[in-house]
Amino acid sequence: MQLLKVIHKWLSLIVGIQLILWLVSGLVFSLLDPEQVKGKYLSSQHAPANIAATRQLLDHGDILASYDRQAVREITLTTLLSRSVYRVVLADRVDLVDANRGDSITITAAMARAIADWDYSGERGDIRSIDKVEAPTLETRRHQGPAWRVAIDDSINTTLYISAEDGQLLERRNDIWRVFDFFWMLHIMDYRERQDFNNPLVICLAFACLWLVVSGCVLLVNSLLPAGFTVFSRRRRGPVPVKVYTDAGLLLRELQLPPGDVLIDALAGQGVQLASLCGGGGSCGRCRVRMDAGAPVSDDDKALLSAESLSKGYRLACRQRIDGPASLTLVDV
Amino acid sequence: MKLAAQSRKVHWWFNLVIGIQLLLWSVSGFYMVVVNLDFIRGNHLVTNLHPPLGGPAARLVPTSRVLQDFDSVQSLTLKPVLDHPYYILESNGAFHLIDAVSGIRHSPIDADMAAAVARYHYSGDAPIAAVTLISENPPSELYTRPLPLWRIDFADRINSSFYIDPGSAELVTRRHDFWRIFDFFWMLHIMDYDDRTDVGNNFLRAAILLATVSVAAGVVLLFYSFAGRRRRHSSS
Questions:
Q1: Rg of chain A taking only CA atoms, in angstroms
Q2: Is A100 exposed, middle or buried (0-12, 13-18, 19+ CB in 10 A)?
Q3: Is pLDDT of A230 > 60?
Q4: B-chain residues near A273 (CB < 8 A)
Q5: If you compute the radius of gyration of chain B from its CA atoms, what whole number of angstroms results?
Q6: What's the CA gap between A315 and A303, in Å, rounded?
Q7: Closest partner residue to B225 among A278, A286, A312, by Cβ?
Q8: Which end of chain A is more exposed for a tag (fewer CB within 10 A), N or C?
Q9: For residue B113, which of B171, B174, B53 has the smallest C-alpha distance?
Q10: Rounded distance, CA B190 to CA A34, Å?
């Protein structure tokens, strides 16, 4: 038990702050509305448009013919801003081709603006800026390839990301997501990429935390089962007489204390305050009193008092349960 | 002394209530960070996810001919399934699989084809243990994915299951025992025991608040514990 206490103490020194951060970030996750975090609540959920089967519509085969078949993964006929397009997925990029004329489509800033307008449903926030990001940023880390960043002037600073390759709406970011993401970073302890929760740091801390909690649980269960701890006897038996003497041997008080209580707490309840730094944790050794030499000796007594002191009847008051009439002598600290 | 004594009481009583959940958070969190996420996702179980169209330039059924059989079409994809070109047509949320050379409709695909597709994407060599069409009462591991789905179980050590959409013949998702353990721990972690999705449940919020008080009291005690270490009392 003594070793377990030391382990618990040192692990809490290492894990304490992070444990609080885990709890606080967890609370933030559970308080934020996931729809707001995802930005979906400011998106006008359009049903996918129907493909207009015009006479000029090119065939999949026509599109395929202009590529090396070994490089093409799939070709999809779909709609982009009410225009039929072919989306050609290649090993390393995505091409967009007009389905009627066959010419390649580049997503311009104007198109990105139109796509953003089409998707955004918030109260008329003006578009503040449109610029192109060539490589993924923290906000588009799940995607590859260039993207248009459309910043909207609303109360939560919505930013829409539109793929510069095929015009798909990649992400809807806003300040609520940014708060979430900051705490996510703290939660998984990946301070750079914010996505790798198998990083060595978090594994070490989680391991330490696991043993912190396991040791705490064992200590807790143990504290419920010491010899002489009698939750029920408190109801059965009346108060126990305890005489308190000063160091000089004068009778100071005669008290009636409830059986089963911890001595230091019971004394404090009667106005006899013993010194303690640790608040009754059995770790500072300040609350020692002299009792009958046969009083039970706890591990903490052994750790903090010498064998000689123990044989003289010195004990820690925070480690004694009241179980019968007793006399004790206060020690000048 | 007073603050220390009170903190110790708070630490003790609150942990008596919330200690078990702190233990569950620690165990589940440790599992989630220590087991590699790519492994959990089953990335090692799958292969040939994006095969090229390849093959000889067979004459494909014209796009307009495929479109004319359906009232409304949202997308029409040409891609290889089992190394043969197919059209996958999306019409009002449903998917249809059409042979791009013969024009014959193959969806919903039968058990043999579903098994063949699963085998095509499976990177291991364990035999198939069972092929089941799930059209109602989905296992919880499918969450809210639309049914029906073919479930193909492999007789490997981690009980891999592949789910194939009968409409598009696509591999929708894959599961295995370590994923299932992850999912179970996720449930314990977010304390949503019904749907395993709602992080904003009041149960979790209350538990976090209780645990925060307990841990804060523990941090207070930390100062006193180390302050009291300075000397060891011998006989007075």
A1: 36
A2: middle
A3: no
A4: 1
A5: 27
A6: 11
A7: A278
A8: C
A9: B171
A10: 14
Where does B102-167 have alpha helices with state H? 111-121
CA-to-CA dists, residue A91 to A67, B46, B214, angstroms: 12, 18, 53
Element (H, E) at A22: helix A2-31
Closest CA to B67 of B39, B42, B87: B87
**CA–CA separation, A262 and A296 (whole Å):** 13
Q: For chain B, which ranges sit under pLDDT 70?
A: 1, 57, 228-236
Contact A42, A174 (CB under 8 A): yes
Mutate to test the interface with A, among B1, B16, B192 (most CBs of A within 10 A): B1
Q: With an 8 Å Cβ cutoff, is A56 touching chain B?
A: no
What per-residue confidence (pLDDT) applies to B223? 86
Helix (H, G, I), strand (E, B) or coil at A101: coil
Token digits of residue A198: 């198998």
List the structure tokens of A38.
């995802």
The kind and range of the H/E element at A233 are helix A233-236
Which residue type sits at B125? D
Above 50 in pLDDT, residue A224? yes
d(CA A330, CA A186): 49
Give CA–CA dist B226/A210, Å, rounded: 22
Task: Report which residue type is found at A31.
Answer: L
Contact B74 A48 (CB under 8 A): yes
The residues in A 193-212 lying below 8 A from B, measured between CB atoms, are 197-199, 202-203, 206-207, 209-210, 212
B-chain residues near A306 (CB < 8 A) = 233-235
Peptide linkage before A241 cis (omega within 30 of 0): no
Model ipTM value = 0.89
Contact B78 A64 (CB under 8 A): yes
pLDDT band at A124 (very low <50, low <70, confident <90, very high): low
CB-hemisphere CA count at 13 Å for A137? 15
Give the pLDDT band of residue A226 (cuts 50, 70, 90): low
Q: Quick one: average pLDDT of A8-12?
A: 93
Q: What residue spans define the domains of chain A? A: 2-34+181-223, 53-173, 233-330
* Token code pair at residue A61: 């085969």
Residue A184: which pLDDT band, with cuts at 50, 70 and 90? very high
Q: Residues near B208 by Cβ (< 8 Å), separated by ≥ 6?
A: A23, A26, A27, A30
CATH number of A233-330: 3.10.20.30
* Tokens read off for A228: 């002489």
The per-residue pLDDT for range A269-278, each reduced to its tens digit, is: 888 888 888 8
Q: What is the pTM of this model?
A: 0.84
Whether the upstream peptide bond of residue B166 has omega within 30° of 0, thus cis, is: no
Q: Would you call A119 helix, strand, or coil by DSSP?
A: helix
- CA A9 vs. chain centroid, Å, equals 21
Pairing of strands B75-81, B84-91: antiparallel
